[in-house]
Amino acid sequence: MNFPFITSGFFGAALLWQDGGSVTGRIWSFLTKPLPFWNERLSVGNLVIGTIVLLLTLSLSGRFSSLLDQRLAKRGHLDAGLRYTIARLVKYVFVLAGILLALKLFSIDLTSIVVFFTALSVGIGFGLQYIAADIVSGFILLFERPIRVGDRITIGEDEGDVQSINLRTTLVMTNDRIAIIVPNSKLVSQRVINWSYGDPRARISIPISVATTVDVKLVTETLLLAAEDVENVLTDPPPKVQFLRFGDYSLDFRLLVWTRQPSRHPQIKSDINYQIESLFRERGIEIPFPTQQFLLTTADADKLKGELQQDGRLDEHDSLSKERPSERNSPREN
């Protein structure tokens, strides 16, 4: 056995270990050294770890929320809106815990955070109150759930399906695939029509006017017939016709139908209107148009006749109700 070789190898390994230990010690000393520009409790290592924790929290929170939503989707008794609310709240809690842990690693005193938010409240009072109202309204929508993801809503003249309820805004997608970004405070403070809230059934009203000479019973039978065999129209409750009023030049009716697909009410109205137009044409039911009558008194007729005579449009022997004999009897010259 070559003892000199073994002995030299042992001493070489010891020297390498000593050098490595010194390098590791220098690295550890650098990481644990307090930063001079911050405070004595914050070191380079805590700064690096806190940054990693913050980045991981922000990147993993969305994935964790999506994974939780997928797991909840397997439970049939939970609707999409409730699943979205649970996943969103868990995401907010996850992000808040990560931020608090990062602040602790950064050696930031919570008292300073309180002072910061106190100063921020002054700014909110001057110009950020709308943003604060949107954020608070976002939590109201998540907890109270008057509007849920997947609901069909109407805001003013805009109508669409709720795609997501975020911290400050809500995304609504119209039938034209146009995204409408609505501030949460608007959904809480203003009038909003939710077609999907509560009872899944919704009643659709279709107004129609007919001429005053049309038989009322014929109109009622025709409207009820037009509502038959229309897709997404319920037979229970059955369609109903209401005679609303006698208009100035028409008889005004309203056809009422029920559906379990309120989001498709524009298409349902269109299908029924096609049926109404076809049946009205077959049965000779006329849709009226506005008409006006003018009453001309004798004094007004004399005044108009005088003005026409001055302009040369009317002879002294002509009247307003007859054509000029020369123009009526003589052939047109070529």
Q: Overview of this structure, please?
A:
52% of the residues lie in helices and 15% in strands. It has nine helices and eight strands.
Structural class label: alpha+beta
The coarse silhouette is: elongated
Strand order of the largest sheet: 4-3-2-1-5
Separate helix tally: 9
Low-confidence stretches: 1-8, 10-20, 322-334
Helix content: 40-55%
Strand content: 5-15%
Observed structural traits:
3-stranded antiparallel sheet; 334 residues; disordered C terminus; 5-stranded antiparallel sheet; single chain; disordered N terminus; alpha+beta
Topology readout:
Blueprint (H helix, E strand, L loop, with lengths): L2 H30 L11 H30 L6 H26 L4 H35 L7 E4 L2 E8 L3 E5 L5 E5 H6 L3 E2 L7 E9 L5 H11 L13 E7 L4 E9 L5 H19 L14 H13 L14 H5 L5
Antiparallel strand pairs: 1-2, 1-5, 2-3, 3-4, 6-8, 7-8
Helix pairs in contact: 2-3, 6-7
